[in-house]
């Protein structure tokens, strides 16, 4: 039962934090960010919010710095929006899964072009 509640809270937090970042955080360091997932502790006391950032590594660093400095504000706003006795502590984590998937897709495309045909010829000849 507790796991079901933490999963529901995670989905609610994902939606609310995404909306909060989009509409209420006016920090110019925050670029194009996406909340990819949220993990809530079983005791509902903390939540890890995984963020993906579109852009280079400097844009990702700037966005993560801005989000980490706004974590207290985000927590207080979540406390106002969601009816909970205690709002969970918000910890922002950089999610590299999208970049990792894009890198693997690029590697697979490279392997496909180098793969020889059945007769021993390669595709790029």
Automatic annotation (TrEMBL):
InterPro entries: KH_dom-like_a/b (IPR015946), RbfA (IPR000238), RbfA_dom_sf (IPR023799), Ribosome-bd_factorA_CS (IPR020053)
Entry keyword annotation includes Cytoplasm: yes
GO cellular component terms listed in the entry, alphabetical order: cytosol
Record has Cytoplasm as a keyword: yes
Places the protein is found: Cytoplasm
One Pfam family linked to the record: RBFA
UniProt keyword annotations, A-Z: Cytoplasm, Ribosome biogenesis
GO molecular function: ribosomal small subunit binding
GO terms of biological process kind: maturation of SSU-rRNA
Function description: One of several proteins that assist in the late maturation steps of the functional core of the 30S ribosomal subunit. Associates with free 30S ribosomal subunits (but not with 30S subunits that are part of 70S ribosomes or polysomes). Required for efficient processing of 16S rRNA. May interact with the 5'-terminal helix region of 16S rRNA.
Assigned protein family: Belongs to the RbfA family.
Binding partners and assembly: Monomer. Binds 30S ribosomal subunits, but not 50S ribosomal subunits or 70S ribosomes.
Name under which the protein is recorded: Ribosome-binding factor A
Organism: Desulfitobacterium dichloroeliminans (strain LMG P-21439 / DCA1)
Lineage: Bacteria, Bacillati, Bacillota, Clostridia, Eubacteriales
